[in-house]
Specification:
This protein starts with 7 loop residues before the first strand and ends in a 6-residue tail after the last helix. Helix 2 (31-40) runs parallel beside helix 3. The strands form 2 sheets. It has an 8-stranded parallel β-sheet, sandwiched between helices. Strands 10-9-8-11-12-15-14-13 form an 8-stranded mixed β-sheet, sandwiched between helices. By secondary structure, the protein is α/β, with parallel strands linked by helices. It has helices spanning 16-27, 31-40, 59-70, 87-95, 108-119, 132-140, 142-147, 157-168, 183-206, 222-233, 245-253, 261-267, 283-286, 307-312, 344-347, 354-376, 390-404, 413-420, and strands at residues 8-9, 50-54, 74-78, 99-101, 125-128, 151-154, 176-178, 214-218, 237-241, 257-258, 270-273, 293-297, 314-321, 324-329, 334-338, 385-386. Bound molecules: adenine (ADE).
């Protein structure tokens, strides 16, 4: 193995063989990406382009990174969360000569050090999950935007929301594709991916029975809905808290109970935050929770559960098992916090299954390729946030269905004409 080509800092290179087996397993579940790999490994359309990425270092991400490399790109990568890196996977990428700076359990200072290391390649393209890489360029290296970067892509709801706010204020220095907002991303990854992986994280760190529990989900967007329907399927009594009337209404028609967090806090057994907003669970909620309540978060940042508030009410903390800490409060009640309030699905489990990441990362690959193709044609996008091209969404869904062995109907020319015929009535 040639360790010299790429620079890296990972936990333990000896884990590389295990990482390679995990990546091979993910590849066997990601047929759309495998199709794209076959299509572009020979023509190498990304040759001469440098991509810096900041996205969870998982076996699925490794599949994407390796395809970028096979398509000709020079890649440098860091994780986008201090607790989500799968160390064996990071080691496998380093062993393959890919520049990677990621290990599980890093500090916040180390997190930003890793991002800075990836920027040393002077990227032409950025790929983010949570926008920390883009923010670092804007705040610390604004000259990169003019000198090197042609565009970026963003994977997650939280990141896209902030980038849209930046664009609105005229503060965004290069165009960004909102991969998150593709239909083949958020209708699948955010719903079924978050749903399954969040339950997976809760079960791995607690092994509790979900049937019969009062299971509180804060936020009924795509992610919250995914968690709620899976918990409901396992027999939990699901309670939803929301601020948006339409989302709350959908939750009631999906069979969930809706109430305020002040009310839910008194009766919940398990709490999951999925809002992207800070201070969803704070001291007034901890004060009324039942002894034994479990709290965790599946939103991008660790600001949804206010652990500072919890610590103020606490007399002692001990680790019960991996990713599960028991806070004993001054009044004797115990509250269990999973994964330190960070993304429970990636910190305590392995993130979304490969099958859904297949579509999300096909969107990432196609969006990066789109930016490169525009650049090659000398076309410049404005410094805005762009939705992915609609045809890309349909193409990825078509490919996914094909690889799953499903066929669908097509409209006849007459049917298509009928669909658009505004003179036709009853
Ligand atoms: N986000 C959620 N699940 C993920 C996974 N398996 N890999 C990368 N990013 C993710």
């Amino acid at each position: 193995m040639d360790y010299k080509k790429g620079k890296y800092k990972v936990a333990d290179l000896r884990l590389a063989p295990e990482g390679k087996r995990l990546i091979a397993w993910a590849e066997s579940r990601m047929p759309v990406l495998m199709t794209l790999r076959e299509k572009y490994r020979k023509t190498k359309p990304l040759k001469g382009y440098r991509i810096a990425g900041c996205l969870h270092v998982t076996k699925e991400t490794a599949v994407l990174v390796k395809i970028f490399v096979e398509a000709g790109a020079h890649v440098s990568w860091s994780g986008c969360n201090p607790l989500s890196t799968q160390d064996a996977v990071a080691a496998a990428l380093a062993a393959d000569g890919i520049s990677i700076f990621a290990w599980h359990g890093m500090s916040v200072k180390e997190f930003y050090w890793c991002i800075e290391e990836t920027l040393k390649i002077h990227p032409n393209l950025t790929l983010d999950d949570g926008a920390d890489l883009i923010f670092t360029i804007h705040n610390k290296h604004p000259e990169f935007a003019k000198k090197y970067v042609i565009g970026g892509t963003e994977e997650t709801t939280t990141g896209v929301k902030r980038l849209r706010a930046m664009a609105k204020d005229g503060a965004l220095k290069y165009p960004v594709i909102a991969v998150n907002d593709a239909e083949t991303k958020w209708d699948f990854d955010n719903v079924y991916g978050t749903g399954q992986s969040t339950i997976d994280g809760i079960l791995r760190s607690t092994s509790v029975l979900l049937a019969g529990k009062n299971f509180v989900v804060a936020g009924y967007g795509h992610c919250g809905k995914g968690v709620a329907i899976r918990a409901q399927g396992l027999g939990a009594n699901v309670i939803v808290t929301e601020v948006k009337p339409t989302a709350a209404l959908k939750a009631t028609l999906d069979g969930m109970r809706v109430m305020t967090m002040n009310e839910a806090a008194k009766i919940g057994d398990i709490f999951v935050t999925a809002t992207g907003i800070k201070d969803i669970i704070v001291d007034r909620h901890f004060k009324v929770m039942k002894d034994g309540a479990i709290v965790c978060n599946t939103g991008h940042y660790d600001c949804e559960i206010n652990l500072k508030h919890l610590k103020k009410l606490t007399k002692s903390v001990r680790e019960i098992r991996s990713d599960n800490e028991e806070y004993t409060l001054k009044d004797g009640r115990r509250i269990y916090v999973l994964a330190k309030g960070r993304l429970v699905n990636l910190a305590a489990a392995e993130g979304h299954p490969s099958e859904v990441m297949d579509m999300s990362f096909a969107n990432q690959f196609m969006s990066q390729l789109w930016l490169v193709n525009l650049h090659k044609k000398g076309k410049k996008l404005e410094n805005k946030v762009y939705d992915i091209p609609k045809e890309q969404d349909q193409e990825i869904a078509r490919l996914k269905l094909q690889t799953m062995g499903y066929k669908i109907d097509t409209l006849t020319p007459e049917q298509r004409k009928y669909a658009e015929d505004y003179s036709a009535g009853t």
